[in-house]
Amino acid sequence: MNAPLAETRAQGIGVALPRKEDDRFMRGRGGYVGNIRMVGMVDVAFVRSPVAHGRIRAIEKPEGCEGAVYTLADLEGVQPIVANSGLAGFKCSAQPVLAGDKVRQVGEMIAMCVADNRAAAEDIAAQVFVDFDELPAVVDMLAARRAGSALVHEEWGDNVFLETFIDADLDDIRSKAAIKVSRKLRTARQSMAPMEGRGVVAHWDHRLGQLIVYTSAQMPHINRTGIAGCLGLDEGQVRVVAPDVGGGFGYKGILLPEEVCVAWLAIKLGRPVRWLEDRREQLTANANCREHDYDITAYADGDGRLLAVDCEATVDSGAYSSYPFSACLEAAQVGSILPGPYKMEKYRCRTWSVATNKPPILPYRGVARTGVCYAIETVMDAIAVQAGLEPWEVRMRNLVLPQEMPYDNITRKHFDSGDYPECLRRAVEAIALPAVRERQRRGEADGRRIGVGLAIFCEQGAHGTSVYHGWGIPMVPGREPVTLRLTPDGVLEIRAGVHSHGQGMETTLAQIAHEVLGIAIDKVRVLLGDTGITPYSTGTWGSRSIVMAGSAVGVACKELKARLIKIGAHLLKDEPAMVTWQAGAVVGPHGWKRIADIARTWYLQPQLLPADVDPRGLEVSTTYQARRDSGTFSYACHAVVVAVDTALGKVELLDYVVVEDGGVLINPLVVDGQVYGGAAQGIGTALYEEMRYSEDGQPLASTLADYILPGATEVPAIRIEHMETPAPYTEFGQKGIGESGAIGSPAAIANAVNDALRPLGVEINQLPITPRAIVEALAAASAASATQGRNA
Amino acid sequence: MKAAAFDYARPASGDEAVALLAAGAGMAKALGGGQSLGPMMNLRLAQPDSLVDLRAIAELRGCRRDTAGGVETVLIGACTTHADIEDGRFDDPSRGFLPRVAAGIAYRAVRNRGTVGGSLAHADPAADWVNAMAVAGADILVQGPAGRRTVAAADWLQGAFTPALAEDEIVLGVRLAQWSAAARWSYYKFNRKTGEFAEAIAAFVVDPALDLCRGLIGALDGPPRVIADARGLLAALQAGDPAAADAELAAAGLPPGSYEHHIHRAALQRAAAQLKGNA
Amino acid sequence: MNDKPTSPLALTVNGREVSAVVEPRTHLADFLREQQLLTGTNIGCEQGVCGACTVLVDGVPTRSCITWAVSCQGAEVRTIESFDEDETMAELRAAFTAEHALQCGYCTPGMLATARDIVTRLPQADEARIRLELSGNLCRCTGYVGLVRAIGRVLEARRQRNLVEA
Ligand SMILES: Cc1cc2nc3c(=O)[nH]c(=O)nc-3n(C[C@H](O)[C@H](O)[C@H](O)COP(=O)(O)OP(=O)(O)OC[C@H]3O[C@@H](n4cnc5c(N)ncnc54)[C@H](O)[C@@H]3O)c2cc1C
Ligand code: FES
Ligand code: FES
């Protein structure tokens, strides 16, 4: 007797399978919000504030178009967006969906204009007249903290959303430390700049009595909760569909005032309403991440062993606390993860989340980890210089060791598994450090200076309830739900509340199902993004989806398999104990039944089912929580070689290596893609991207010609090496790595540039490292040494 | 953002185009490839009442070779695209200089549509043609209601985005003398990212047959600094004396010690070295 | 809003002759997306920088966001929807998926238009040249690694075939 047709091509966990979703995108059939066409659909353009801070005296609707313009006064009963942190001392900001009496950032929405198409809506918007009393703008976060600063929210009395403090007595450390290094560091405000902007199409479905909101979002269920809350609807009256999303990176993990406005208008007009964010809106109204300031001191013994870190960190949180991550997640993270992968005796950190007249901050890929990694890794290099050691040697002396795993660090982060020193060793080897040092000694024919830089870090991902509750954000993730359903022809539908915006979840979740059930990948349909057909989830963020939803799929598939075996055995007239599960079929001594056979039986031939069949049938809903909710800790070391053109200040990346441990990899192709893409974004953070503001709070870049994103010539052929230490607490040993690439690259590149410039007496302590920064720093250094020379 | 509304016309002759521009009384604009106008209009930074598309005017396409007073010249039509020049689909008098410059402008898709005339008329001090044509000693041929006139490319920019061109005039083309086999050139463009506008441009063109040794400091706040006789500067730079450039850099309005001063000086040094390498 | 000026327009879109009336201010990308319902051409900036909107106009890659539809009178326009029978595109698509050259897919139609231009126009392109030619198409997801490899793979296969045929 023949065995059932086994699926011979490997499709399970660990296979670098090309993605199921690629075909539609390559044929121009992606289903982005902007591609939705509905009869009678109208377009919205917003009137946005041209001033950073001002009181609105009057808004005049253009004559003849009054009915096409809406202001807050028209939006009766619509609630403002509020995202309160649970941490003590937090000051609340309410963000009206259209400005009330005041605007607090350039680009804040003041009025909504509607017309048959966007161009016509913009024509109307251009005629709306707003009379302002301009107020002094709060632009710099450190200045904003000082007494006497203008106030973003007058009722607060200062500009601080929240101050946190982890205290420690450092007296003994100070007296015994042979090495003390201090640095003041800055990272620029950035725009996450996914290639697709945000966008919303909303309409009211009379049959369902439901508002349907299509929105380019990472967390559709959260948006639904938020929209229902602001509009005073029952959640059942709102369905949010996030269709294909053209990149997220955190930019689309937010409840938008635009969503609330457009949804309100769709109800008001009784017709479909659309708003598509354009690039100018994105850059000028929504540059909203990464802006940190560090004043950091580290103490070490003479051998470079860390004794303590003492830091004051300020985060520019912008004008409002955005929902659901709040104005304070970023700073809370800084406080808790600054120690990085290192051991130390003492740790002290004070943080401020500061309100300014800029867009509200959102967690961009890596969130605070990118800035934190830059801060701690800069300091590690400084210690190395003082100790006369190679940067890797200092790190090696301070990393948590594999035999100490799992390890609770100084801020009680529970590092789950891994071999950090090995990761570092391999990166140093892969970058061929001795050869680079030799090249540095020889010098370059073209006069450029070579530098090499390292950054090692761990990335907490898929952390759950206790962690986020501790960080005080209004949305705390819990158990992750998933629903499986077999159709009568044996196709498996996976319904998950997470979403995919490039991460390939349609493929990787199917691979997990294949791993457990042996079902062919093309018989698995992964349904995401639609609150109408997926279970409630906080969505995709925090490197959590493959750990949480992936594990949930695995657990559910196991449950489904048990039910299938029971029915299959009955059909085969065998005891369940006599049959096995092979390649998507129940196999007994006398024959086999495929998934499709069993599914057909359940739905259409129930007379054949056993009397005691599981009444829940072929639909499985389950939820998953890791055995510990403290998160997975993937880790990586980035090593980079740069050539710095000192005359022009230009940095070229000559070689770039990432050694990465993401636990068990579900699909290495997808994982590599995440790391490459993240690293490219980190290169942007390191060298190119900055949203600068004028003294009166005007954003100084409104096009992609001014806000420079790295292109194919700015990103090198990055090399990746993998380690695979299984995560101890997840279903398949997988770890979250979605943000990893973007965490290490700014630190590694900055260290490399500073390694190149150190012999010239220059260290640059801000990101991005622009030609101007390099040239000016070198000029200052040579002017200083000239004066010194004269004085000597 | 979407452009404000405008009218559109596609005249078949230069005269017709000029008449349409004149009728627009300052609110009509010529349209070349639209690669500068498009972004500006989409941002509503430019809101002309009407566009006069020049691309159907046969005279503005292709090249014409002439000899006058013993000098052989080539007139490159205003609607010649950057890609035409990059690929050598034109009669090149410059021994490869213009194709090299063209290849460094923007990106291929922009070069496929953007025109020489449009770039000159746009008069961005950081753009490539305004600088390349100035150092090349080209003449720009212009037609207006009063007829045709010629402007030396070196005098073309009156200021940033202000060409020596009236609102009812169009650029017909650029005229260059044929360079000799002994001609040498260099062009150094410093920008932060491939395809973007320059932060600094430096160039040299030397042709003994035309008694030409010009240098240029470009991508300034205003018009480029053209160094009509660059022999001394070139020799000094090639001999490794960067300070020799300081007088010219000062004349170009670059404050000593500033970032701008540094990068323009470095660009000049590199252009000089490139020229040496080309010898 | 019908008080705005309009112009007649006749051109070929994906091999089909199309006549339409457009506002002159409508750029080619909007004309294709909103009037022709060819939504495969994505818009990423409308500033000419990102390349997401790249289509072929008279055979060459063109930024459709800064090209007015009216100025395409008589032109032949090809969008991503038109390449299902195109062998070069089939090869590129296979390479794109094998090398994981796309994630969110938003830049992909523009990337494919540019990639096709690279492999047909520059058969000898090496990695550095591929990167240079690709520099006008931004991708925020992939870090370009898969894209550069995929295009290199197709170029190499074509070179091998030409050697064999020669
Ligand atoms: C992303 C991007 C990057 C770029 N990078 C560079 C770069 O690195 N270097 C560079 O030099 N340029 C760059 N450009 C600009 C590009 O070269 C444009 O093609 C050029 O500046 C304008 O040419 P056009 O034919 O497209 O002119 P249009 O945009 O059509 O017109 C520009 C101006 O010239 C006028 N005009 C056009 N033709 C004529 C004419 N014949 N007579 C009179 N007036 C006319 C118009 O009225 C308008 O004022 C870039 C553009 C983009 C979008
Ligand atoms: S949308 Fe056309 S270049 Fe970005
Ligand atoms: S795949 Fe997302 S922008 Fe390229």
From TrEMBL, chain A:
Chain ranges of the Aldehyde oxidase/xanthine dehydrogenase a/b hammerhead domain: 27-136
Annotated keywords: Molybdenum, Oxidoreductase
Lineage: superkingdom: Bacteria
Keyword match Oxidoreductase: yes
Entries under Pfam families matching the protein: Ald_Xan_dh_C, MoCoBD_1, MoCoBD_2
GO terms assigned for molecular function: iron ion binding; oxidoreductase activity
PANTHER family cross-referenced by the UniProt entry: ALDEHYDE OXIDASE 1-RELATED, XANTHINE DEHYDROGENASE
Protein name, UniProt field: Xanthine dehydrogenase molybdenum binding subunit apoprotein
Phylogenetic lineage: Bacteria, Pseudomonadati, Pseudomonadota, Betaproteobacteria, Rhodocyclales
TrEMBL record, chain B:
Keyword Flavoprotein: yes
SUPFAM superfamilies xref list: FAD-binding/transporter-associated domain-like
Organism of this sequence: Azoarcus indigens
Annotated keywords: FAD, Flavoprotein, Oxidoreductase
Keyword Oxidoreductase applies: yes
Membrane-spanning ranges: none
Gene Ontology MF terms in the entry: FAD binding; oxidoreductase activity
Domain FAD-binding PCMH-type: 1-181
Protein name stated in the entry: Carbon-monoxide dehydrogenase medium subunit
Database matches in InterPro entries: Diverse_Substr_Oxidored, FAD-bd_PCMH, FAD-bd_PCMH-like_sf, FAD-bd_PCMH_sub1, FAD-bd_PCMH_sub2, Mopterin_DH_FAD-bd
Pfam families given in the database record: FAD_binding_5
TrEMBL record, chain C:
GO molecular function, one term: oxidoreductase activity
Annotated ranges, domain 2Fe-2S ferredoxin-type: 7-83
Domain of life: Bacteria
Keyword check for Oxidoreductase: yes
CDD domains, alphabetized: fer2 (cd00207)
Transmembrane regions listed in the UniProt entry: none
UniProt keywords, alphabetically: 2Fe-2S, Iron, Iron-sulfur, Metal-binding, Oxidoreductase
Any Pfam family matching the protein: Fer2_2
Protein name: Carbon-monoxide dehydrogenase small subunit
